[in-house]
Specification:
Elements (H helix, E strand, L loop, with lengths): L2 E5 L2 E3 L5 E8 L8 E6 L5 E7 L6 E3 L7 E6 L4 E6 L8 E8 L6 E4 L3 E5 L2
Parallel strand pairs: 2-11
Antiparallel strand pairs: 1-3, 3-8, 4-5, 4-9, 5-6, 7-8, 9-10, 9-11
Length: about 120
């Protein structure tokens, strides 16, 4: 079965950095397109970033562009989100997700990892 397991969340001060990981299994990770989505307290889901496997092209929400970097380690079937210059507005549960082939939708999601940016 498909499994996506996030880790690396925690408490960090404004301006700090954090690296999230997503361990993937149950599908061919190296040819799959992946993304990160977040949900702030009391808010809806917000798309953060995607990475497309064939071209390695990345896309980012305006709110995180220039601060976050999405990447993969195909040898380890792992997706990463490097988060720098963190702001309080980045506080959210972060989910990794697999893109449904041939679409712009996600078909599988991880359980999420909490990121809290606070002094």
């Amino acid at each position: 079965e498909v499994q996506l397991v996030e880790s690396g969340g925690g408490l960090v001060q404004p301006g700090g950095s954090l690296r999230l990981s997503c361990a993937a299994s149950g599908f061919i990770f190296s040819t799959s397109d992946m993304g990160w989505v977040r949900q702030a307290p009391g808010k809806g889901l917000e798309w953060v970033a995607n990475i497309y496997s064939y071209s390695s092209t990345t896309y980012y929400a305006d709110s995180v562009k220039g601060r976050f970097t999405i990447s993969t380690d195909n040898a380890k079937n792992t997706l990463f989100l490097q988060m720098n210059s963190l702001k309080s507005e980045d506080t959210a549960v972060y989910y990794c997700a697999k893109v449904l082939g041939g679409s712009r939708a996600y078909d599988y999601w991880g359980q999420g990892t909490q990121v809290t940016v606070s002094s």
